[in-house]
Automatic annotation (TrEMBL):
Keywords: 4Fe-4S, DNA damage, DNA repair, DNA-binding, Endonuclease, Glycosidase, Hydrolase, Iron, Iron-sulfur, Lyase, Metal-binding, Nuclease. The keyword RNA-binding does not apply. The lineage of its organism: Bacteria, Bacillati, Actinomycetota, Actinomycetes, Kitasatosporales. The gene is nth. Its cofactor is [4Fe-4S] cluster. It comes from Streptomyces cinereospinus. Residues 1-113, 340-367 are annotated as: Disordered. PROSITE patterns: ENDONUCLEASE_III_1 (PS00764), ENDONUCLEASE_III_2 (PS01155). This is Endonuclease III. [4Fe-4S] cluster binds at C302, C309, C312, C318.
Length: 367
């Protein structure tokens, strides 16, 4: 039994050795075959790999170039789009800084108190009183009747035209009784140069009849009586009361309305409301002279279309400074009193109203 086991073990060991030897031989043969094949195939494989690598590299370079071409303008466009985004910020800053420069002259604050308004209005009147010390009605008259008729005729025409017309009218009809009995056609012919001569003829003949019949041929000295006469309103009545009877009144004509709104004394447009608003700013004793000062200034300097701001004595007190010509030399050419002047004028040269920097100087004598 023991011998048989020993023989079996030896047989198994020999079988294992044979198997291992066969495997080793097979492996060696495969290695030799691989070694024999490798030298012939290696060069071809290396060349192909290089060619493929070069082609891939070329394609990659081409793709990168194409990408660069496309990416370049995109980046530039992106930068270009960013610039406009930043532009409004740059443009906004100077506008905000420049906004205060719009104020070219001292202007009353939006919330100007009543006291400040009264003081400013009275300073303007004092300055105008220095400039126009002999301001008066620019209609020629010898008595209240002539002033009443001349004032009615001055509607929609100039005082100069009225002054050229009334001498012949009063020479032929010197009293209310004479004019009340006049032939309308003859009066129309005299008044034709004044414009609206038919309507004005009816007014002057009508008021002459009313004076003759109701007031004994005398012009009444009360407002309530004057406004009852044909063609006579509050403006005409105040002209007569202030200049023929010495009773204070405010004359709200077109010049007066324009200037008091420019000066922001009132925002009213109705003549009666303007009269009340402005009258509340001044003592009653100043009303008649105030009317003359404002009207004279409106006719000579503060014109409707192009005021001569550069020659205005009240420029520092005017909220509307800059609406007209501010250059002193150019403004001087706009002054209507330069053509012939007028009695009693005491106007300072335009330069006297400006400081060294060319801006409006404080009014002389204003306190």
């Amino acid at each position: 039994m023991g011998e048989q086991s020993s023989d079996g073990g030896e047989k198994a060991a020999k079988a294992v050795k044979r198997t291992a030897a066969k495997r080793a031989s097979t492996a060696a043969g495969s290695a030799e075959k691989a070694a024999a094949e490798t030298p012939a195939e290696a060069p071809a494989g290396t060349s192909a790999e290089k060619a493929t690598a070069e082609k891939a590299t070329a394609k990659k370079a081409t793709a990168e170039k194409a990408t660069a071409k496309i990416a370049g303008p995109v980046k530039k466009a992106a930068v270009a789009r960013k610039k406009p985004a930043a532009a409004p910020e740059k443009a906004t800053a100077p506008v905000r800084k420049a906004a205060p420069a719009k104020t070219v002259a001292p202007q009353p604050p939006a919330d100007e108190s009543r006291t400040a308004l009264v003081r400013r209005a009275r300073r303007i009147n004092r300055e105008l009183a220095e400039v126009y010390p002999y301001a008066h009605p620019e209609l020629d008259f010898d008595d209240p009747f002539q002033l009443l008729v001349a004032t009615v005729l001055s509607a929609q025409t100039t005082d100069l035209r009225v002054n050229q017309t009334t001498p012949s009218l009063f020479a032929k009809y010197p009293t209310p009784e004479d004019l009340a009995a006049a032939d309308p056609e003859e009066v129309e012919e005299i008044l034709r140069p004044c414009g609206f001569f038919r309507a004005k003829t009816r007014s002057v003949i009508g008021l002459s009849k009313a004076l003759t019949e109701d007031f004994g041929g005398e012009v009444p000295g009360r407002l309530e009586d004057l406004v009852k006469l044909p063609g006579v309103g509050r403006k005409t009545a105040f002209v007569v009361l202030g200049n023929a009877f010495g009773r204070p009144g405010i004359t709200v004509d077109t010049h007066f309305q324009r200037l008091v709104r420019r000066w922001r004394w009132t925002g009213e447009t109705d003549p009666d409301k303007i009269e009340a608003a402005v009258g509340a700013l001044f003592p009653k004793s100043d009303w008649t002279d105030l009317s003359h000062h404002v009207i004279w200034h409106g006719r000579r300097i503060c014109h409707a279309r192009k005021p001569a701001c550069g020659a205005c004595p009240v420029a520092p007190l005017c909220p509307a400074y800059g609406e007209g010509e501010t250059d002193p030399e150019k403004a001087k050419k706009l002054l209507k009193y330069e053509k012939g002047g007028f009695p009693g004028q005491r106007l300072r040269p335009p330069q006297a109203y400006l400081d060294a920097g060319g801006k409006p100087a404080p009014p002389l004598g204003a306190g």
